[in-house]
Amino acid sequence: VGYTTHGHGLTVHLARCPNLLNVDKERMIDVAWDKDSEITRSVGIMVLCKNEKGMLATLTGNIHASDANISNAEIKTIPDNRSLCTFEVEVRDIKNLKA
Predict the structure, then answer these.
(1) Cα 78 to the chain's mean position, in Å?
(2) C-alpha distances in angstroms, 81 versus 60, 62, 84, 86?
(3) How far apart are CA 44 and CA 1, in angstroms?
(4) How far apart, in whole angstroms, are the C-alpha atoms of residue 32 and residue 9?
(5) Cβ atoms within 10 Å of 55's Cβ, excluding its own
(6) Residue 68: helix, strand or coil by DSSP?
(7) What is the dihedral of CA 15, 41, 98, 20, to 10 degrees?
(8) How far is CA 70 from CA 19, 59, 61, 64, in A?
(9) Is 99's pLDDT higher than 90?
């Protein structure tokens, strides 16, 4: 389901996403992947993980193995020996995103 935001364009959520329970229904639109297109879409992925040696290599290796391209990454160490990793990746379709 697409949702038109104030100043941030369109965000897409799963239809069962709990974030959609409290939104203005008039700003929601149906969306679907164009399965025939060769165009990629930029998708944000946030990972909260243990801050340990090799974790970034593991994460980026998994993204690479799914045949997605990382166009931006931000890694922050946070308390309790954890890291917050935010990636912007280019995917072809929902199947590519799920991989």
Answers:
(1) 20
(2) 20, 22, 10, 17
(3) 16
(4) 16
(5) 15
(6) coil
(7) -20
(8) 26, 11, 11, 8
(9) no
